From TrEMBL:
Region (Disordered), start-end ranges: 1-23
Protein name: Uncharacterized protein
Superkingdom field: Eukaryota
Positions with biased composition (Basic and acidic residues): 1-10
Annotated source species: Aegilops tauschii subsp. strangulata (Goatgrass)
Amino acid sequence: MAWKRYHDSSMHPPAIPARRRPKPGALPPPWVLLNDRAYLAGESNHTTAVSRTRHGDEIQATLFLADPPLVSHFFISCAAEFGCEPRILYTEANLVLLTLVLGDPYNAIDPRKNDFYVYEVGVRVVIMVYDF
């Protein structure tokens, strides 16, 4: 997979110190600061959810929570080539709207060529929204 279409830093998420991560099985923090760009990494944990792109490729979305004031991050992995970094468009309570641009980076300017997903914290499946 070629990663030349985005910043090198998109491949290297910051480490979250263990003392600032929520403990396994603990309730998530009541609020978090969330990066609006997702990292391109195959990391997974108990929050990993799976779906498919419009072309049938498997996609995984993983949320790495950090207690505020640290920033929480999404990690996205997919066999298809990304056109640009996945983005978080909107959040509400435990729902996150993600968008992915696959293939040509110019697809980003046409929402009909983007894949949209609703990630629900605590659910292992990401719902793809085909028509926006």
